[in-house]
Amino acid sequence: MAGRKRITEKKMPLAQPDKRGSRTIKRGDQVAEQIKRGINDGLLRPGKRLNKEAELQQMFNVSRGSMRDALKALEVQGLVTLSTGPDGGATITRVPIARAFQSLQNYLFFENLTLGDIYAVRRTLEPMVAAGAVAHLSEADFEALERSVSVCEPFEARSEEALDQRHEDIHFHDVLAAAHPNAFLRCLCQIINQMLHSLVIVAGNVTQRDYQAFGRNTVAAHRAILEAARRRDADAVARLMAVHMDEAEAQLRKVHAALQQKLVLDSELDLRTERGEP
Question: Hey, how many other C-beta atoms are within 10 angstroms of the C-beta on 66?
């Protein structure tokens, strides 16, 4: 089909069956490894469409079942999206933060993780990331930060508004993290924010006054950080964020917040949004 980019035009037979220890690597896994090698080498970038399934079978010299196993494995890892229909197939995708979070939380589920553990890390990372983002914030970023604060101001305690405002509280930090040039720091903060978004719960017997105070304090902290960022004062942003992290943990303890001991499932994550899809 015109305009459809192919990964290669020649046959790509697999190497001799790979063995790691006493375990023979399945053909589908070998194909997945070869495609990942192409991603690693920069030959396959996000948005690149692979050949149709039948063509991939011939190129890798494997059965239909093995090819489907390979593509499914890559989809589970978040490296490809699969579509059906006459023009369907596999497309290379950037792994979404939600997928990275899910892999990490699968491991942490078996650890005794507390809210205090998360904030011990946030107190170190958030001031560093926010300060490092200041020089890179665009006007669109400032608009997103302003919009986030506006959604949460004035703070409402009704359940539907409170949920939206809690999401925006976290989104404020996501905007700052996304502007940081260090991809590793950016990723760590965004995964922690996803964890807060998905796993933190507030006790049902919290008073309206305490919950409103929590919201007002968060809005005030975000407003001060935003104003310092607009002045491009990275030192002030770092100081304000450090204070905000201390206050945020104390406020969460006051409303008896805790981490849910549960696995967040695919159905509970909006992976389409994380991929930037409509």
Answer: 20
Structural contact between residues 151 and 128, judged by C-beta atoms closer than 8 angstroms: no
User: Per-domain residue ranges for the chain?
Assistant: 19-92, 97-266
Handedness of CA 169, 174, 175, 180 (dihedral sign): positive
Cis bond upstream, residue 86 (ω within 30): no
Where does 97-266 sit in CATH, by number?
1.20.120.530
At the top level of CATH, the class of 19-92 is mainly alpha
Any residues with CB less than 8 A from the CB of 148 and at least 6 apart, and which?
168, 169, 171, 172, 175, 222
Long-range contacts of 267-275 (CB under 8 A, 24+ apart): 268/198, 269/98, 269/99, 269/101, 269/102, 269/198, 270/98, 271/78, 271/96, 271/98, 271/99, 274/96, 274/97, 274/98, 274/99, 275/81, 275/93, 275/94, 275/96
Q: Where are the alpha helices (DSSP H) in 109-157?
A: 115-133, 139-151
Rounded (5°) CA angle 276-101-36: 70
Report the share of the chain in percent with pLDDT over 70: 84
The residues that bridge with 195 in the sheet, in sequence order, are none
Residue partners of 203: CB distance under 8 A and separation at least 6? 255, 256, 257, 258
**pLDDT tens digit string along 220-236?**
999 999 999 999 999 99
